[in-house]
């Protein structure tokens, strides 16, 4: 069996702020995802991004198709709107009571190139499936989310009940202990950076990336004191406070 998420070391994935990452984080966390340039200028100042740097980044992002602009208002492109929906689902996943069934997805397409295979793996991982063996993906059937229509041409979906004990299988498919360790480190850092907008922005960006890798398993398959709900609560509260601070109003 093979894990589809690296085990990691429990260290938080903190990446340096760039003007592009600041703009994307602000818009991805804003509903609807659009901000006037004056609001963006006010927001990036406490984060250490100069106005000239912001304007250059906005121009590049429009040219790259990340943003659309009308009358000095910038909004996410359709492609990034899909990313916002995935991010929202990561923070607030929809679940149902688990009855013991598992989803199984079998890759049926052949002759695909490396780039197409990598894209398919990314899509299946985004659906919070884990790879049991090449071309066979599983997860407990407790998660409610739409599947991309285009997947129907390359995969088949089934419902199954593996003979292997469910808790043992889940622990094999996902690196639960490392994920929990990193989540706890992020919770500590969120609290420690609460008074510093730039540092808190960086930590919250790392937190939402980490939540995207949460398998959202049924409670009965998780270790005791699983920190997923606590990280979601902390992220939601601190992000709301940060957006209010840098924009001057709730997002």
Automatic annotation (TrEMBL):
Residues annotated as domain Transcriptional repressor PaaX-like N-terminal: 18-79
Name this protein carries in UniProt: PaaX family transcriptional regulator C-terminal domain-containing protein
UniProt-listed GO biological process terms: DNA-templated transcription
Gene3D superfamilies, sorted: 1.20.58.1460, 3.30.70.2650, Winged helix-like DNA-binding domain superfamily/Winged helix DNA-binding domain
Domain Transcriptional repressor PaaX-like C-terminal: 186-243
Residues of the Transcriptional repressor PaaX-like central Cas2-like domain: 96-144
Species name: Streptomyces sp. R08
């Amino acid at each position: 069996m093979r894990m589809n998420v690296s085990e990691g070391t429990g260290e938080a994935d903190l990446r340096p702020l760039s003007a592009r990452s600041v703009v994307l984080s602000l818009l991805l966390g804003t509903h609807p995802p659009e901000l006037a340039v004056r609001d963006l200028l006010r927001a990036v100042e406490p984060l250490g991004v100069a106005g000239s740097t912001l304007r250059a980044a906005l121009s590049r992002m429009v040219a790259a198709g990340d943003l659309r602009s009308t009358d000095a208002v910038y909004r996410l492109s359709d492609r990034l709107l899909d990313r916002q929906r995935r991010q929202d689902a990561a923070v607030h996943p929809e679940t149902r009571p688990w009855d013991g069934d598992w989803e199984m997805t079998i890759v049926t397409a052949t002759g695909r190139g490396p780039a197409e295979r990598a894209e398919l793996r990314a899509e299946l991982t985004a659906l919070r499936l884990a790879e049991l063996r090449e071309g066979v993906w599983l997860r407990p059937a407790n998660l409610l989310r739409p599947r991309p229509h285009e997947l129907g041409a390359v995969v088949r979906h089934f419902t199954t009940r593996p003979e292997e004990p469910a808790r043992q299988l889940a622990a094999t498919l996902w690196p639960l202990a490392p994920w929990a360790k990193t989540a706890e480190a992020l919770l500590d850092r969120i609290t420690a950076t609460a008074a510093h907008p730039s540092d808190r922005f960086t930590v919250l960006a790392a937190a939402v990336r980490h939540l995207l890798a949460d398998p959202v398993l049924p409670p009965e398959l998780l270790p005791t004191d699983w920190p997923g709900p606590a990280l979601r609560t902390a992220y939601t509260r601190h992000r709301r406070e940060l957006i209010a601070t840098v924009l001057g109003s709730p997002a």
